[in-house]
């Protein structure tokens, strides 16, 4: 069973460049490939470096959000500053978050691993809490021993 904590967080804003995920929501291989292609592009074309230059800290956010009935995925940073061409200022609500920690060879691997643990194990185990939608994020908090270290943050409410 995945280890998790429940943490109270203040509201915060993530500025992100995003892409619409076109794969069916049950096509995990397709979704993961779309995300990997997107992250390769934002690294190569300088958008991620642009975001890092205005970030309030060193965290990198891989945000998932449903917007206008579309599955969106964003590369983002914690900031209140806008940059030209950015897709969205993503508002995360104040409240309780289910937090799962982990590590991976890359941010993409970290995000995929944490999402599986959080939604497949931790959230079902936290029976008195429910995810009612809104943005959720895999957050790269650092690196250790050649691995990317981070957390999955999912806003939850008490049932």
What does this structure look like?
With 159 residues, this protein is of the alpha+beta class. The chain is 28% helix and 44% strand. The protein has one domain (5-158): Multidrug-efflux Transporter 1 Regulator Bmrr, Chain A. The radius of gyration is 15 Å and the shape is globular. The mean pLDDT is 94.
Gross morphology is globular
Number of helices: 3
Please state roughly what percent of the residues sit in beta strands, choosing from under 5%, 5-15%, 15-25%, 25-35%, 35-45% or over 45%: 35-45%
Rg from Cα: 15 Å
N-end to C-end Cα span: 21 Å
Low-confidence spans: pLDDT under 50, at least 5 residues?
none
What is the CATH topology descriptor? Multidrug-efflux Transporter 1 Regulator Bmrr, Chain A
Query: What is the CATH class?
Result: Alpha Beta
Reported CATH architecture? Alpha-Beta Barrel
Question: Sheet with the most strands?
Answer: 9 strands, antiparallel
Average the pLDDT over all residues and give the rounded result.
Answer: 94
Domain count, please report it. Answer: 1
CATH superfamily: Regulatory factor, effector binding domain
The secondary structure category is alpha+beta
Task: Give the SSE order as H and E letters.
Answer: EEHHEEEEHEEE
Helix content: 25-40%
Number of strands: 9
